[in-house]
Amino acid sequence: MPTGEALYAEDFIKVLERRHLLKIQEDVQKRAALVSTVVIDLLTSTRTTGQPLVDDWDCFKTLVKSFKNQCGAKMEYGMKYAGALANICNMGVDVKQHVSAIEQACAH
């Protein structure tokens, strides 16, 4: 079990990781606002059973990759927003415009 400086360093890293995760959540909310959609609806709406998660898989893969690269999200946390990214793609969006919006929302 770490003590002294090692314990302080471990706790400091945990605080930094938590702040980073909160920043990602804030970035996603900004991103959702940029598409003029109610954030809660975008983040929580789901499709009915039997429907695919997303209609445009190229759009979805592009937005997930952009989110991961721009926001620095650990995939297990970033995937919390996979449904929101799928919903964005299902709205028939301009992918380049939304990649740009992700870059803006996640700019540090």
From TrEMBL:
Legumain prodomain domain mapped to chain residues: 40-106
Pfam families: Legum_prodom
Family the entry assigns: Belongs to the peptidase C13 family.
Protein name as it appears in the record: (rape) hypothetical protein
Any one GO MF annotation of this record: peptidase activity
Superkingdom as given in the UniProt entry: Eukaryota
A single BP term in Gene Ontology: proteolysis
Signal peptide interval: none
